[in-house]
Amino acid sequence: MKELNERKLIEITPKSPYNFDATVFKPSYYPDYTKSYEKGKYWFVLNINNKIYGIKMENIGSIKKPKIKLAIFSKYKLPSGEIEKIIEELNYRFEFKRDISEFFEKFKEDKILSPFLKRWYGMHSSCAQNLYELLMIGIFLQNTVVKRTVQMTNVMLEKYGTKVKFDNKEVYSFWNPKDMINVPEDELRSLKVGYRAKLFIKLSKTFVEEKIDEFELRKLQVDKAKEKLLKLYGVGPETARILLQESLHHYNLFEHVASWQQKILSHLLFNKKLVPTEKIIEYVNKNWEKWAVLAVHYIWEDIFWQRKQGKKIEWLDKEIRL
DNA sequence: CATCAGGGCCCTG
DNA sequence: CAGGGCCCTGAT
Predict the structure, then answer these.
(1) Please, what are the domains in chain A?
(2) A146, closest nucleotide (Cα–C1')
(3) CA of A282 to C1' of C1 (A)
(4) Which nucleotide is nearest to A185 (CA to C1')?
(5) Among A1, A84, A248, A284, whose Cα sits 20 to 30 Å from the Cα of A302?
(6) Which is nearest to A162 in space by CA: A24, A54, A8, A29?
(7) What percent of chain A has pLDDT over 90?
(8) CA A274, CA A60: separation in Å to the nearest integer?
(9) Residue of least CA–C1' distance to C7
(10) pLDDT tens digits for range A161-195
């Protein structure tokens, strides 16, 4: 356990509109020990280049006049240069400075989208994890159901992650690539992660040896970034999609729909049981163009939010396979 | 009890 | 380009 007692307070003013709760908390994501959320407040461990900080963000503004109180927790007092880096990184991961007002302007009269835009006005995509951490999550998601994903994630966090305490919260941070490269495959397999054991080790080696630079990846056009990601062992179209959308924040590449998503989107967009994925992809791109991914995100999170509120949505419960 | 497919991906033929 | 194998789990 690591305790971080040094605290630095800073105010952040995101670009308006910015919907704090809808951006930091996504009802469609699976729960794990790496974060803590309550309305208007979010805690997690920030890992930048294998250095960790405790982060608490608190909403003290509104959607139109956003303001966030940021507390950075560390073991020792941080030099100002390091604090600037942390803020810059948070700007990227939570899109504090990204202007998406064009999206609302363009689609405010859109037949399908407009009610969702009203309900979730100012919501961005966001990602508390770095690229490696989200890749680990992507592997946990592969070829299984939510319950097992949660189980594998938490058991691995307990064994290889670090428990971090700050602001009276305890959350886990992921292991770093170098911590995983010498772990025997059998040891991982005993944690019931199956074929993923090999992937964790192999991917970690790739990150250590070839020094995959997520900061370089961020600068690439979406097609180039995708090409690079697909070269990683164990990363196919679906895992690449997750990384491109969430970690690298690309809103314009909508070209892959997994079969469980296909069922849900068929319902939401066409009110039908099953529409061919090509049709879905064509429809989404035609309607929402370079905002395709964000548009679907609005519709997607809305239904998961309703479900979280206790609304019974039978067809959905069946498709998400808890 | 046994069987089977799943919030993919790799490899083979 | 189709299809088998990978792991474990819970549904049937």
Answers:
(1) 6-96 (3.30.310), 97-322 (1.10.340.30)
(2) B7
(3) 23
(4) C7
(5) A248
(6) A54
(7) 86
(8) 43
(9) A194
(10) 999 999 999 999 999 999 999 999 999 999 999 99
pTM above 0.90, yes or no: yes
CA of residue A281 to C1' of nucleotide B10, angstroms: 26
User: What Å value separates CA A194 and C1' C12?
Assistant: 24
In percent, the amount of chain A with pLDDT more than 70 equals 99
pLDDT in tens, A245-276: 999 999 999 999 988 888 889 989 998 888 88
Over residues A61-76, the mean pLDDT reads 98
- List residues, Cβ < 7 Å, touching strand B: A 28-30, 141-146, 148-149, 195, 232-240, 258-261, 319-321
C-alpha A230/C-alpha A234 separation (Å) is 8
Give, in Å, how far the C1' of B8 lies from the CA of A198: 14
Mean pLDDT of chain A: 94
Structure tokens given for A14 = 């995101």
pLDDT at residue A263 in the model: 86
A144: tokens are 């299984």
Is residue A315 packed enough to be buried (19+ CB in 10 Å), middle (13-18) or exposed (0-12)?
A: exposed
How many other C-beta atoms lie within 10 A of the C-beta of residue A131?
A: 20
pLDDT at A321: 66
Does the CB of A194 fall within 7 Å of any strand C atom? yes
